[in-house]
Design brief:
Length: about 375
């Protein structure tokens, strides 16, 4: 692997919280990726909501398929920019490990339940999963990932949470939120790959569901230009092939724009190392024109898909499931597994337990505890 001077080099990693001997055949970031793929939390992503609840259809994206798509996009761009592909893959595969069942509705409901108890945020929970909650190794909790992978997982963090992390881990992954510096370039890339992936696959799932139409999408410049281009070149194109070809071209244009704009930013800043790249402004990004078009697409999806009455109705039920599960476990901790019930900080133990659930397990548990079936 030919790495640029500004890429994260596994041989120069800031290491793990618990020192371990190096693996004989794998780099530190390959080892991180392998630990993530074999984790329990990663397997659960297959039954966690992206936009549509798991029971609503077999072909809609889940957190697992989303994470795989992010990893594919990020690796492709990383190769063109001479960044570390193994690190971006590890970050991409782990970035949603802490997401609740029922997507953002579940997160918002759990955050409301945790008001006064430290709140809940899925990025912070993803870090908590890899640092504390996975139980696989005899010498430590969590997966004991490298600093660079953990840095990329924690892409958002409030100042108060960053201060708590800094107190427990001085100079660690919370420090940049206090210093207002950047994460490594691989982490910056994963953040953009996440956005590119969900914009594209949410269009696909939205049309598949019937909640948005091809006609509505004609009002979105970023989509329309590639739809029209595809039809000019292939006038016989029909059915879902029109959608797929339009999305494919849109994805390619965003990826090429990201590579070109980032290459120009890197050439201008000329960082001599990964740490030097962290100290300036963010260097991975779209051109101004593509950033504006992407923002218009995100606004379209917000109003026409994420806030569609059918989605809102379903997510309203999902919020209720999470809220009532939280109340039930708080009042009856013996209804949780013994290791959760025995923890001293009961609200956080309940939040950890619920956040680790899949959609269908949460729905079954709610029915068991309340006698009500809200999500068929």
């Amino acid at each position: 692997m030919n790495l640029a001077a500004y890429a994260c080099d596994p041989g120069r990693s800031r290491g793990r919280r618990h020192p371990e001997a190096p693996a004989p055949t794998r780099t530190e970031y390959q080892r991180d990726r392998d630990r993530i793929v074999h984790s329990t939390a990663f397997r659960r992503l297959v039954y966690k909501t992206q936009v549509f609840l798991n029971h609503e259809g077999d072909l809609f994206r889940t957190r697992l398929t989303h994470s795989l798509e992010v990893a594919q996009l990020a690796r492709s761009v990383a190769r063109s920019l001479a960044l570390n592909e193994d690190l971006v893959e590890a970050i991409a595969l782990a970035h949603d490990l802490g997401h609740t069942p029922f997507g953002h509705a579940g997160q918002d409901s759990l955050d409301e339940c945790m008001k006064g108890h430290g709140g809940f945020e899925h990025n912070l929970q993803s870090l908590r999963v890899v640092d504390e909650l996975e139980e696989r190794y005899p010498g430590f909790n969590g997966l004991n990932l490298t600093f660079e992978t953990r840095e990329g997982i924690l892409k958002h963090c409030s100042r108060s949470n960053a201060q708590r992390i800094e107190a427990a881990e001085p100079g660690g992954v919370g420090r940049r939120f206090l210093d207002r510096t950047q994460p490594g370039l691989e982490a910056q890339l994963c953040n953009l790959a996440d956005e590119i992936a969900y914009n594209a696959h949410d269009i696909d799932d939205g049309v598949r569901s019937g909640l948005i139409t091809m006609e509505q999408l004609q009002a979105v410049d970023l989509f329309q230009r590639f739809h029209d281009e595809a039809m000019r070149e292939h006038p016989q194109l029909q059915g879902r092939r029109v959608l797929y070809e339009s999305i494919r071209r849109m994805l390619s244009a965003q990826v090429y724009d990201l590579i070109e704009a980032t290459s120009a930013a890197l050439a201008a800043a000329a960082p001599a190392s990964a740490d030097e790249a962290r100290r300036g402004a963010a260097l991975v990004g779209f051109s101004a024109a593509m950033r504006e078009r992407s923002a218009v697409l995100k606004t379209f999806l917000l109003h026409n898909l994420y806030r569609h009455p059918q989605v809102v109705a379903t997510t309203g039920q999902a919020r209720r499931v999470v809220r009532e599960l939280f109340a039930a476990y708080l009042a009856q901790p013996d209804q949780m597994p013994a290791d959760f019930a025995a923890r001293e900080h009961r609200p956080r133990a309940v939040a950890d337990y619920i956040a680790g659930m899949t959609d269908r397990f949460a729905a079954r548990e709610h029915e068991r505890l309340t006698g009500q079936r809200l999500l068929a």
